[in-house]
Amino acid sequence: MTAAIDLRGLRKTYKGGQAALDGVDLSVERGAFQGLLGPNGAGKSTLIGLMTGLVRIETGSVRLFGHDPERNPVAARRRVGLVPQEVNFNSFEPINEIIATQGRYYGLSRRAARQRTQAVLERVGLAERAARKPWGLSGGMKRRLMMARALVHEPGLLILDEPTAGLDVEARRDTWALLRELNAGGTTVLMSSHYLEEMRDLCQQVAVLKDGRLIANDTPAQLFGADAGSGTGDQGLEARFLRLLEGGEPEEEGEP
Ligand code: ADP
Ligand code: MG
Fold first, then answer.
1. Pair 32, 202: CB distance under 8 Å
2. Statement to judge: residues 167 and 225 lie in one domain
3. How many alpha carbons fall within 13 Å on the CB side of residue 218?
4. Ligand lying nearest the CA atom of residue 36
5. Residues of the domain holding 111
6. Which terminus of the chain is less hemmed in, N or C, by CB atoms within 10 Å?
7. What is the pLDDT of residues 54-107, one digit of tens each?
């Protein structure tokens, strides 16, 4: 069976900048819970942007369930839900309309979009506010709205860019619970974060980006050590990660 995500040789240099991505290959199996870990500026959002059409592909290829999103955008788009890093819904549009509009964009009929909107709002606990505008929602609720919007068309792959950044503990726990539930139901999840603990606790596999290069892609136990799942010694977890980043310095090019 084709992988959910297959990335080959992705490079990206923004105008006037250094390489944001410098040759990334990554394959994610269907049903996986894949983490994308890296410090700020490592290239996580660029990688997600390339997969979801927000950033133009210059070099390399992206396949989502075997589809090339540039040649076959509709087939790819219908299988993918995106929760972007920044809040990007219209605060003047009622919550249920934000979600139904997205459903229509993904090809749902009017009726299906309405039904699915109700279902996802219930799922994320926003059903009572459905007819209201998202103004005044807490940070956690805004995230849940973004999550509902990404799920309206029941995508096989959910991509989230730092979905828990800046959330309080309770909102983060809600997010984790929802992601675990979706993944258990068969949804492939790709999530970026710079929080080591949540990568360790949630993901089956963690890809580590540093300066636009993938320096590791392994299970949390392999990456952080066999006791990484014990829940103690987070100092140790951080220290291990820093060692990984240091040890992962790419080789100089042009060596014999
Ligand atoms: P991350 O999400 O891991 O923090 P990004 O993908 O946002 O990393 O950024 C990777 C690199 O590309 C950084 O050096 C950043 O400054 C640069 N960058 C990101 N977006 C743009 C842009 N639109 N224009 C120019 N440079 C950018
Ligand atoms: Mg980012």
1. no
2. yes
3. 12
4. 1
5. 80-154
6. C
7. 999 999 999 999 999 999 988 888 999 999 999 999 999 999 999 999 999 999
